[in-house]
Amino acid sequence: MRAENYEAVRQPPSNEYELNFGPNHPGIEGNYALKVKLHGDQVVAARADGGYLHRGFEKLMEGRLWIQNLALVPRICVPDPAPMEVCYSVGIEDIGGLEAPERAQWLRVLQLELSRMASHLFAFGGHAATTGMYSPMFWGFADRDLILDLFEELTGGRVYHIYNIPGGVRRDIPEGFLDRVTSVMDYIESRLSDYDNLLFTNQVFVDRARGVGTLNQQQALEWGVTGPNLRATGLAFDVRRDDPYLVYDQIEFDVPTEQAGDAWARTLVRRKELVESIRIVRQVVERLPSIPGPIRCPIPNPLAWNLPAGETYTRVESSKGELAYYIVSNGGDKPYRVHVRGPSATHAVQVLENLARGSRLEDVAQIMFSLDACPPEVDR
Amino acid sequence: MFMLHYCTGCGAIELPPAMTSRFDMERLGIQPMVTPRQADILLITGYVSIKTLKRVILTYEQMSSPKYVIGICSCTVNGGMYWQSYATAKKLSDYMPVDLYIAGCMPRPEAVISGMRTLMENIRSGKADNWKDYYQRYDHYLGNQQGLFGEKWQTPTDVIAEADHYGLSGPGTRGEHTELLLQHQKPLEALEMRLGLSGKTVEVES
Amino acid sequence: MSDIDHKARGSLLNPIKNWQFFGRKPVTESLDPRPASLNYRGFHLNDWEKCIGCSTCQKVCDNAAITMVRIPGLPDDPVKGVRNERPAIDYGRCCWCALCVDLCPTGSISLSREYVHTCTEEEIGSYFVLPDPNGIHGEYYGLGWSKSEDADLVDLERQSMAESAPEVRIGTFDEIVGGFDPQQAIVEASRCVQCGMCHDSCPTHMNAPEYIRAIWKGDLEEAVREIYRTNPFSHVCGRVCTHRCEDACSVGRRGDPVAIRWLKRYAMDNVDHERVRAIAAEGKAEYISGKRVAVVGAGPAGLTAAFDLARKGHEVTVFEGLDKAGGMPRYGIPEYRLPYDKLDRDIDVIQAVGVKIQYNTWIGRDITMAQLQSEYDAVVLALGLQLGRSTRIPASDHGQVRKAVTLLRQITAGESFDLPRNAVVIGGGNVAMDIARSVARLQKQQYGEVRVTVTALEDRAHFLADPAEVREALEEGIAIHDARGPREVVLDAGGGLAGLTTWRVKSIFDEQGRFAPTYDEADERTFEADMVIEAIGQMADTDLLGEELTERLEWIRGRLKVDETGRTSEAWLWAAGDMVNGPDVVHAVRDGHRVAAGIDEYLTATEAARA
Amino acid sequence: MNEEVALTPTLKAVLSEFDGLRYRYTSARRLRVDLPSDALPAMLELLQGRAGYAHLSAISCVDWPDDGDFELVYHVWSYTHQNLVSAHIRIPRDPGVYLSVYDLYQPAGFFERDIHEMFGVYFEGSPDMEKFILTEWDGPPPMRKEFDSEGFVNDHFTWQEYRPEWLEEIEEQGGGITTRPEDIRL
């Protein structure tokens, strides 16, 4: 490994200087770094530096059985693991010609939306914190935890659910679960106005977040921005609606947008998506009892399961944007190649670099959090 | 106790809940701290990629003694689920002394908190003093570090001097590996030490 | 939702409103860990009573976190499919995905609701845990994620096997079982969890996991190669083996065992015979040892021994009294269970490696043991058990009272005998079923109706015959009366055979477990018959050894005494097969290997001594 | 697969520009196109310019050492047609050089950079071929099939050797470890 990393920096005598922003820095989401060149407080140039969370997932997956990888994939994006599982499972079903039973699909939607809410609560809690407002963060985490409790009950794990399996899901809902889901939904709904008072109509936050890290729709498309960040620039695109998977085509929901395209707008879009997610969850709660099992189609013994040769590109809408798996099977019992296209792949590198340039140092953290970039997903 | 705010891996996701209202670590007087210089606890939250490991070691050395390392999740013990991965370190204790492990993948906030309480107990009873081990067996740790990062590996901190300062330098402090270090070491000037203060690694565009 | 206006200043009252928060219920939890949810994935539990040490959990673990540990004192019985091993979990690897739980064949392993464990560097050993029913700290926190219908990944149902219907098969000697088609075979093979219980329980330790996996991969030649490593009677064992493997199969714990026997049959039937010969000949020794070995009896034991010895470069001659090789599988097992052309293939493969068979040569009549001793370096006795035992009940010496083995041989040889219109079979073993069903077929062919009655000492629950055999016999219209002991053969005035009187059996064995049946003489019943067939066991025809040799040899209760290599008290003489360890084809094969190994060792030793 | 899904006129027009090109619908919204490597940039340009495939979803690389090829797959999505085209090309593994499409799709910058460090494929004209994730890795490109991650790990790291009491006891009684996980991996 290169020792130069730890050699002294010879700074040219000037009022420009370099600063390493992270990896160990409260203003960085996760374990990630940004090297910024500063002129006073102005960021002249920024360069993302990743790999601190690199585990070589794609390599690992080539060495494990199709099913074993299910334990691996959620780890790719820690705050929002559910889409990873679902996307991978759906991909395998696609290659293997399996059909997940309807009930399983609804359960997956339930899992996805709860996970999305958890992730969004996390995100705007974090964003608020970067502007020095800690209460929303405290509230956000506390409320997110109620959702984690639901996960624990449904899937046996708070954060890593490992709930999906090719062909369906691993467990049916426990007794009285849907009622508890409803009550949590009611509670979070009742909290929304508090969040508005505390954050979105709070002038401190508004003034702090508006106009920061602005990108217009044109740039967003050029830079390959997706998800809430894209919707914050006024383009209503959502994989759930426009490239439907599972049973999303049977579900009513809107795709909220904002025009401003700045940090405030991005976070606000997430705030609005909370409402949509609650709507979706309520529909699931309503429909689920009338949908009979099973929750999994028969699958072969995992130890002896060859998937037919083939390839698939499956996309889902994660809380951070477009998540895609490109899976190639050569007819073996292990994947031949899995390529994970995390939404943050674009957000955390090119977009972040571009937005940071010209911003003020104190806003860099805010920009990163408002992009809701997820380093583990970039590093993989 | 101040806990260094450095999320090296997955496990970090359970810390915010542990620190905020629901489980509220502050009840125990535990708070996140942004700079290693003022932190008592280095929490290794899961796997450390080799790239991160360098920063972690740097950070650890910058922390002022007495200091305590907690390794949470499976990964810090025996590689965890990334045992096959070329990119992550397997046994944290090869590179720095660990005072406490918390099992789980990842451990729930409750587990983290009871871990913290155990650590406090161990500190009170004087059971937790592995930080001394780093000085006493620096050569051993340095050897493992060099084995992984190459023999040119060096950090801005002069551990041997510190060892002498604490009167902890023993037979294991110096050795072949420290010899190697001295050969390659480039003297560090005040400026870099100051930059080092911020707890961030200083790098050159190559 | 209504759009949020960023210019909205919020109400002046907000600060006052916020007092309400004091009225809210606090969200903070107590410091002590909360109880986890009902299907939480916490630390492992393992029910040692249920666990059989099959190590399936170890194979499915994606993190290589499970180590199998042998624990003295636990039951360890290959035949029952139980090992004294238990999984130990490395919590420095585990990720609590619970795949081990979902794939556990027995359902013994599960996860608890316990989730707190901390330790210091010195106590790091506590991360390596041997789960028991109590939990890793000896305190039970309740069951978390465990085996459930939903999550079970073990495929409990066997692929259905095509069988010809009773009314069809009763009229012919054609084979009943259809065999797997490729699709079925692959699916069936994929059910295997590679635990190796079958290998351990098989008398000749066939590499079943290996050939099953090869079949699953579609590499049938590899499968045949694995099969021939331990068993030259592959076609035979693919059809009529007593399949202890399937009794031990761990998948069979909660469902149908993997159809190991049918898979073997599938592999053998679907590889071209020429290739099978080539594969069987692989690894045959180049050199010629110049040693000559004589084998008496061309049955499974004898031919297996011959096969091994020939492969090792010795010159082997097999002496067979009858005009075809195969022994009991040919002359004892009816064709509807084992078609002769399949048996011929096995024998052909064995001959292809250089085994010479001399037919119609009876020891003691055409050639004496003394001759063999003088002309050969070693001799193997594999006579089998071709004499039927007699019940010795009154009038059992009547001409129309016949021995099952004799009849079966005649049927195979195509010899004609006066086929009874109404037959009674004594015995509840497989031979009884074989003769009953064979006679039934002949009756169907000649008289158009089946009139066969089977009377057995045992009650139905303890029948010695394979349950499938009994089921099929009943389907074919054979009457089976259990728990009936033969009392006497009834003759009519003309001295012709009229039937068999029986008593109901009260008990078969006495306290010491010796065979001493007691009868309820009040419950007497007579079955009409014009032939009574005794199928109560067989014995070896040892007369042909000649008195002088019989004198010299050591015997135990009528059986030859042999050492662990199958060698008799005579240095040059080995004995193998049914005559040594009772009737069972796969045992005979094992025995053949055993004596072959012993003889080879002996011959090479003498060679070395001479050099 | 289902050929009957009709191509949109624009798409038809674009595809008809090229010969030696095969396409098929793998599902209603997924079109797989196989084409010679030299034709790709031109096609992407047309897809973007004429057919409105504005979003480069990803570039995937697959290593086929047996064929001596790298397979590059360009996934482009059209917000207007709501349809995803996956363009497959093969380039020789050696020297493993191809053209960058950065000037068409800026996100390509990241994906190409990623493929470069993971597979060692060099993209001419890409603004930035510097390492991003593996800056401190000097081994071979890890995603190449010939790189054995497990082997590397065993050479560079040590494992725990647990000695819990229960194990000691069992060994005293004559038991002990029989199968280690590495012995039985499928």
Main attributes of the structure:
heterotetramer, C: 611 residues, alpha/beta, Alpha-Beta Plaits, Fumarate Reductase Iron-sulfur Protein, Chain B, domain 2, FAD/NAD(P)-binding domain, 4 domains, five-stranded parallel sheet, D: 186 residues, Beta Polymerase, domain 2, two-stranded parallel ribbon, elongated
The fraction of residues assigned to DSSP E strands of chain C is 15-25%
Helix content of chain B: 25-40%
Q: Sheet with the most strands of chain C?
A: 5 strands, parallel
- CATH level 4 superfamily of the largest domain in chain C: FAD/NAD(P)-binding domain
**How many structural domains of chain B?**
1
**Which residues of chain C sit in consecutive blocks of at least 5 with pLDDT less than 50?**
none
The radius of gyration over CA of chain C amounts to 32 Å
**Main sheet: strand order of chain C:** 9-8-7-10-23
CATH class of chain B: Alpha Beta
Say what oligomer this is. heterotetramer
Shape of chain C: globular
What is the gyration radius of chain B calculated from CA atoms? 17 Å
Count of β-strands of chain C: 23
What is the global morphology of chain B? globular
Q: Order of strands side by side in the largest beta sheet of chain B? A: 2-1-3-4-5
Query: How many β-strand runs of chain B?
Result: 5
CATH first level of the largest domain in chain C? Alpha Beta
What is the tally of helical segments of chain C?
Answer: 23
Q: Residue ranges of chain B: pLDDT <50 for 5 or more in a row?
A: 189-206
Give a structural overview.
The complex is a heterotetramer of chains A (380), B (206), C (611) and D (186). Chain A has 380 residues and is of the alpha+beta class. Chain A is built from 14 helices and eight strands. The radius of gyration of chain A is 21 Å and the shape is globular. Residues 1-8 of chain A have low confidence and may be disordered. In chain C, helix 10 (234-240) packs across helix 12 (260-269). Chain C has a five-stranded parallel sheet with strand order 9-8-7-10-23, with helices on both faces. A five-stranded parallel sheet of chain C has the order 12-19-13-14-15. The model of chain C has no long low-confidence stretch (mean pLDDT 85). The longest helix of chain C is centred in the last third of the chain and has 26 residues, at 585-610. The interface between A and B is large, with 51 and 60 residues.
Produce a short descriptive summary.
Chain C is an alpha/beta fold and 611 residues long.
Task: Summarize the helices and strands and which ones pair or pack.
The complex is a heterotetramer of chains A (about 375), B (about 210), C (about 600) and D (about 190).
Chain A: E1 16-21, E2 33-39, E3 42-49, H1 57-62, H2 69-72, H3 82-96, H4 102-130, H5 135-155, E4 164-165, E5 168-169, H6 177-200, H7 203-209, H8 217-222, H9 227-231, H10 239-242, H11 263-287, E6 310-318, E7 321-329, E8 337-341, H12 344-356, H13 361-371, H14 375-379
Antiparallel strand pairs in A: 1-2, 2-3, 4-5, 6-7, 7-8
Helix pairs in contact in A: 4-5, 4-11, 4-13, 5-6, 6-11, 11-13, 12-13
Chain B: E1 2-4, H1 15-19, E2 31-33, E3 41-45, H2 50-62, E4 68-72, H3 75-78, E5 100-102, H4 109-124, H5 130-136, H6 138-149, H7 159-165, H8 176-184, H9 190-197
Parallel strand pairs in B: 1-2, 1-3, 3-4, 4-5
Chain C: H1 14-17, H2 20-23, E1 44-46, H3 56-60, E2 66-70, E3 85-90, H4 99-103, E4 109-111, E5 118-119, E6 128-129, H5 166-169, H6 182-190, H7 197-201, H8 208-217, H9 220-230, H10 234-240, H11 244-248, H12 260-269, H13 273-281, E7 292-296, H14 300-311, E8 315-319, H15 328-331, H16 340-352, E9 356-358, H17 369-375, E10 378-381, E11 387-388, E12 401-403, H18 404-413, E13 423-426, H19 430-447, E14 452-455, H20 467-475, E15 479-481, E16 484-491, E17 497-509, E18 515-528, E19 531-534, E20 538-539, H21 547-552, E21 555-556, E22 559-560, E23 573-575, H22 578-581, H23 585-610
Parallel strand pairs in C: 7-8, 7-10, 8-9, 10-23, 12-19, 13-14, 13-19, 14-15
Antiparallel strand pairs in C: 1-4, 2-3, 3-6, 11-20, 16-17, 17-18, 21-22
